[in-house]
Amino acid sequence: MSFLFKNLSLLDPSWKEARGGYEVLVEGDTIKEVSSKPIRSRQAQAIDCGKRTLMPGLIDCHVHTHHSEVYINRMEAVPLTLMMARSAGRLKRMLDRGFTTVRDAGGADWGTKTAVESGLIPGPRMFISCRSIGPTGGHNDRNRRTDFAGPPCLCCNGMVFIRAIADGPDEVRKAAREQMRQGADQVKLMVSGGVASPYDPLESLQFTEEEITAAVEEARAFGRYVLTHAYTPEAITRAVKCGVRTIEHGNLVDAPTARLMARHGVYMIPNLVTYDAMKRRAKELGMPDVMLEKNDEVLKYGYRELELCRKAGVKMAYGSDLLGALEDEQTGEFKIRGEVMPAIDVIRSATLIGAEVVRQEGKLGTIQPGAYADLLVVDGNPLEDLGLFQDGGPNLSVIMKAGQFHKNVL
């Protein structure tokens, strides 16, 4: 099928403003032509955008499609079949919000990705990490203190499906190889303490340099890369020096560490909306006080993180990291970042920079010939109002992924 989008205001994120007078031709799953002059096509179906804004589909670089519980330990009671059914709904709702691409930062497997790619369930393009890897006693270790230390059964519940425990360079190397064998597009490591884990302090350092380096070596050998959960300057510095490519969260970063990231070309993926949402709603959804206290600690530094990274020249991609019922706040990150960043920079984080993170420059996050036809038609100008990206996509008249309409009310 061919479609010709006309009468629109074109917002390509490489520009600083939206521009009128353009037309965009889509053939199959690809953008064929972008022109400031009328495009002639006998086969294309014309789509009159009514002067609305045409822009690329959004990219969320930190989601957890399988984490259907805010208090993750409750996943112990979720069988894999129910986990997948819940995931199908979460994926569709992400696409409803205009996210045509997501990077799953731990949990989703090749089966889920294949289900989306083959059209069995609607959802965004997926770049998966499979099971995240962490050390015994770290952010990834959900065993209770009364549990006997041993390898978890992998066939019982959703909890063990989304995590892997490895200690020592050899075990980390093997775990990384296993995730890539299972189809991982990137390898996820836990290198510091976390909020949603009961026993590890935020400032704890998890994985030695030798362990991190083992994963980085294996990922590079396989044509992949390593992303790391890290909050503190010490954990971020260790990860960057070992060759990781992206830092997730990073709330406690300081100026020297931000400059180190910039020198090494390491991306930051802040997730400020998740801490804000957990502050307001997580207690009623079962999160214990010990985790909420850690959440309060990292929440204090969110805006400072954005300012330090911007000043240092660190590229920041869009990420939400919302668990369970909090997923409905996925687009809230736009509003939070928009309070301290220009709207165009926020939009670039969810388009151009996101495309770089998933290594799809020129194919995603842009409107140019040869790019995938992942497009949104927005009722208004997002540069003037980031609130147009509201949950459920009420201001999105068109959501197109790979040249096919997921939504079209024009």
Q: Could you describe the 3D structure shown?
A:
With 410 residues, the chain is α/β, with parallel strands linked by helices. The protein folds into two domains: 2-56 and 365-408, Urease, subunit C, domain 1 (Roll), CATH 2.30.40; 58-330, Alpha-Beta Barrel (TIM Barrel), CATH 3.20.20. The protein has 13 helices and 17 strands. It has helices at residues 80-96, 110-117, 158-161, 169-181, 209-221, 233-241, 255-264, 272-281, 289-299, 302-312, 332-338, 343-349, 352-357; strands at residues 2-10, 19-27, 30-35, 45-48, 53-56, 58-63, 99-104, 125-127, 132-134, 163-165, 187-190, 226-230, 246-249, 267-269, 375-378, 396-401, 404-408. The strands form four sheets. Strands 1, 2, 3, 4, 5, 15, 16 and 17 form an eight-stranded mixed sheet that branches. The longest helix has 17 residues, at 80-96. It is globular, with a radius of gyration of 21 Å.
- Give the tally of structural domains: 2
The count of helical stretches stands at 13
Mean pLDDT: 93
User: What is the makeup of the main sheet?
Assistant: 8 strands, mixed
Head-to-tail CA distance between termini = 17 Å
Q: Give the class from helix and strand content and strand pairing.
A: alpha/beta
| Principal-axes shape call | globular
Name of the CATH superfamily of the largest domain: Metal-dependent hydrolases
Order of helices and strands: EEEEEEHEHEEHEHEHEHEHEHHHHHHEEE
What would you say about this model in short?
This protein has helices at residues 80-96, 110-117, 158-161, 169-181, 209-221, 233-241, 255-264, 272-281, 289-299, 302-312, 332-338, 343-349, 352-357; strands at 2-10, 19-27, 30-35, 45-48, 53-56, 58-63, 99-104, 125-127, 132-134, 163-165, 187-190, 226-230, 246-249, 267-269, 375-378, 396-401, 404-408. It has 410 residues and is an alpha/beta fold. The chain has 2 domains: 2-56 and 365-408, Roll (Urease, subunit C, domain 1), CATH 2.30.40; 58-330, TIM Barrel (Alpha-Beta Barrel).
